[in-house]
Amino acid sequence: MSAQGVPEAVAVELPCGFVHEDEVFTKAQIIPMTGRIRKLIARPQNRQNPASVIDTLLTQCVTSIGTITRVNKNVTDCLFLGDRDFLVMEIRKLSLGADVNTQLQCDNCGAKLGMTLNLERDVPVTKMKDKEIEVVEGDAVFSLVDEILKLDLKFRLPRGIDQHHIAPLYRKNPIEANYALYRACLLEWNGEDAKDLPMDFFDNQPLPVIDFIDENFMEMMPGPDMRVPVDCYECNHEMMMSMASSDFLFRLPKTGRT
User: How far apart are CA 50 and CA 165, in angstroms?
Assistant: First the structure.
């Protein structure tokens, strides 16, 4: 904190990078949350959509990205999801520390498990340069190929604008939300331009194809890995706790998921 009471900015390195006018900016400056910012993100109109919570936090707490010194919604809409999650996590660590206390319920025996999640230790961050991803005309593009299923697919990494459209669907139907995300990010299907494919394209795909995409799409995402393995100390059941970055600001899930 400066002598004038203004929080001092801290430098972080984005795992993906912000693409702006043929440049990729990986350096960002963040400041901690204040009581005013927590009040802003808790507004009902924001809490209805996790993407709005994240936008509000980022526009208030990210002071610069590369040469961009005005981080507004136009900027946060263009950020890759991995960078949005990463910035939320880093702001949370700067504001409240890396430890997050939570309680889970084992989905096998029902035991309530108290645990402390350390965002520094338990949430690994993968950089885009460590994935087979190529920046093409401003998009980060990756391929999913399966010879048995005869699939050669090209997707782009999702951005903030995609999160705004998809996040409300997850509360109603997570499967529909996944299909909508895949459709929004699909560029090519076996050489065919995705622009020519119907919006309900994934509704008509066989389950082995859907399962292949489900298993591999998220594996290609750079940024924090929000899936944390947990062992129940009552029955030794292994669970996978899945989180959203906005959970860091208010609460964490109360149940594990296998």
Answer: 11
pLDDT value at residue 42:
84
Cβ-contact 14, 83 below 8 angstroms: yes
More confident residue, 118 or 189: 189
- Cβ–Cβ under 8 Å, residues 229 and 104: no
More confident residue, 149 or 241: 149
Token pair in block for residue 94: 């700067």
> Could you read off the pLDDT of 103-114 as tens digits, one per residue?
778 888 988 888
Average pLDDT over residues 75-96: 95
List the chain domain ranges.
10-97, 132-221
Q: Give DSSP secondary structure letters for 52-109.
A: HHHHHHHHHHEEEETTB----HHHHHHSBHHHHHHHHHHHHHHHH-SEEEEEEE-TTT
Neighbours of 236 (CB within 10 A): 10
CA angle, residues 28, 34, 37, in degrees to nearest 5: 80
Task: Give the span between the Cα atoms of 157 and 217, in whole angstroms.
Answer: 9
**Rg of the chain, C-alpha, whole Å:** 19
